[in-house]
Amino acid sequence: KMSNNAEELYNKFEEEKFKKEKIALLCIDIQYHDASPGYGFFKNISKDNEEYKYYFDRLEEKVFPNVKKLQNTLRDKKSEVIHVRIESLTEDGRDRSLEHKRIGCLVPKGSKAAEFITEVQPLNDEIILSKTASGVF
Length: 137
Known about the structure:
Blueprint: H1 6-11, E1 24-28, H2 32-35, H3 50-76, E2 80-86, H4 98-103, E3 128-131
Parallel strand pairs: 1-2, 2-3
């Protein structure tokens, strides 16, 4: 006989505890290119621009502080904090994906736009992955 009781069904499975070896925090594109006025997508936009003010305020007031809390929690548990950014392997971006070329997304190697936002930047020996397309994997 099949049960329609979801609680009964799910109670049959023992909840697996999170283990530091099995979890990681993946921080994606929290960099000047797409999270700071005056750079990348927002190179001609000031912080006070009415059209983008809400976006930048939310980043500073909510996103960055909460990402920082998550990072600190995982660091305290000795879990991985992994950082992903858009950054070409070359200064002229010839290695970018067709999509990035089409939309004008150029983040030259070593540029300020490629740097992580200071509040949530990588520490010590944390893994950093650079990507030249919309996906990293």
